[in-house]
Amino acid sequence: MSETVLSLKNVTIYQENKVILSQINLDVKQGEFLYIIGKTGTGKSSFMKTLYGDLPLTVGSGYIVGYDLLNLKEDEIPFLRRKIGIVFQDFQLLPDRSVNENMLFVLKATGWTDKTEMQVKIDDVLQRVGMIGLTNKMPHQLSGGEQQRVAIARALLNDPELILADEPTGNLDPQTSAEVLGVLKKINDNGKTVIMATHDYAVIMKFPAKTLKCEDSTIFEVVQKTV
């Protein structure tokens, strides 16, 4: 029986005292791929922020990779994020550092000290996303798709139990979006749980998976043909 990576019971998400999403009940098992869809402003990003501790949970109960979101302490958030790989729409690579240096920065910040082990890990994750030959490139020398592959590699560095991807194809053209989704699906095929917020329905049709929709302050499952 697969382990539950995320469990939300009767959760209501607020932002500045406004209800964004209410009565969320959701269980995500290890190895699942889950899309969160919906128009801009319907709560996709607020949902994702709640999962990685950027938006406090105040109503309901939530457990993610062993952490209690309702009682999450501020000093626990960095440890939670080491067990979750986060991929953002705008890549968030350090512009003054090479691909390799971006990776080293994360490893050092999360407690790695052995230089040999760090380089082995960096080479491993870059190989997995098809970026091993571009380690010395600066972010501005990479295409948008290449930058997002590096961002995905960065999210894999600490071998997280769960990948949260918040609009990872939002700044990419259709072909590049499909390539990036292919990378995430391959990671999922190797056993990683992936939750992806998106409004890119084309990639959902190309790579179908369980889909939840945010609409009218609620979140509900939709079947593929009605997406």
UniProtKB/TrEMBL annotation:
One of its GO terms (cellular component) is plasma membrane. GO terms for biological process: cell division. It comes from Flavobacterium sangjuense. Belongs to the ABC transporter superfamily. Part of the ABC transporter FtsEX involved in cellular division. Important for assembly or stability of the septal ring. Keywords: ATP-binding, Cell cycle, Cell division, Nucleotide-binding, Transport. Signal peptide: none annotated. Residues 6-227 form the ABC transporter domain. SUPFAM superfamilies: P-loop containing nucleoside triphosphate hydrolases. It comes from the Bacteria. SMART domains: AAA. GO terms for molecular function: ATP binding; ATP hydrolysis activity; transmembrane transporter activity. This is Cell division ATP-binding protein FtsE.
